[in-house]
Specification:
426 residues, 9-stranded antiparallel sheet, 29% strand, D-amino Acid Aminotransferase, Chain A, domain 1, Dna Ligase, domain 1, 32% helix, 14 helices
Amino acid sequence: MKVLVVGGGGREHALCWKLAQSPLLTKLWCAPGNAGIASVAECVAIGAEDVAALLAFAKTQSVDLVVVGPEGPLVKGLADACVAAGIRVFGPSAAAAELEGSKGFMKDVVSAAGIPTAWYQRFTDIEAAKAFVLSKGAPIVVKTDGLAAGKGVVVAMSLDEALDAIESMMGAKVFGAAGDELVIEEFLDGEEASLFALCDGTTAIFMGAAQDHKRVGDGDTGPNTGGMGAYSPAPVVTKALEAEAMERLILPAVRHMAEIGRPYTGVLFAGLMITKDGPKLLEFNVRFGDPECQVLMARLKSDLLPILLAAAEGRLAEVAPQWSDDVALVVVMAAEGYPGPYKKNTVIKGLKAVGAVEGVTVLHAGTATGPKGEILATGGRVLGITATGASVGEARQRAYAAVDRLDWPEGFCRKDIAWRAMAREG
């Protein structure tokens, strides 16, 4: 099979790395890819959201399956364009991708499907939004309705913080049109986890759980990021909780989306809050998480390609992914200054030594190859040092031993990835 993966981050490197191991694969492309992906796939200089150019490439090369990594091209209708052209695609239609494209739509679906979640209200008027916050008090959560690269969410612990968030999102338009509408919702207390399910329009199967670390600093301090590390399995997601989440959160959503004429295919990423009253849904995303995808692919024993194909063809009932008992853990190396303005085009050395550590795979997120073949850091989150081990402790020890071999003074990472799981291991 000839496969095109769309995207150029750590998630896409993890998908390409896993797909490249498939005996069914004859050719693998990635658009646009990055310097690390180039070692397992042929990178194509087409932007991830250039739907017309991606479709033209897929037609010209007779691509058998398009695997869409990020949410942007899905919201723009890449999957619809592939289906219309008779090309199999892993990822939801634009109508179904609105589950991530509009937080208000997502909350409406969740409410209609009877899924446990935070109370919420939608606003297009700034004064009404402020009045609602003042009537409810803090802590409270303020979100842009539209896509804001994972940054349009403020967990406000005070009224001033909530009012400032409304002003910057809807007044100053710091996230552009994404802030034309706001969703304001209840603050949920508990432990967060990420649960993934594959869907084919009618069927949904469990595709792993993980815990990530959103804040930039050790001890969960500082601003939110796209994710500074993750590990899987997440001890908080027990077999009983997994079954409950599938039954009460995932399957009702899949059924409701089919009922309203927006059948959901692809991966459904449920952000969970494990509260004293059981799991509640924080949000749905329409793609694998990054960095969660890195640890899921490291633990997946099955061939990924036939699983994605079964989802695309409506045959998920036929597959049962097999998982390693090992723990996988990823430490994200970010560029100095991230998540604010960060240094670009600094040289990364020592990658061979990093990859030589037992159980370690280096996955690239924001890299490019320089004129002399050197690896340059081009993004905010740059590398995912991914390690497996028999326990959280072993995986973590390997990951940080690998980080210590890296020669990149302009990079940094959190030193406490998996602290919750380590506390549980005692």
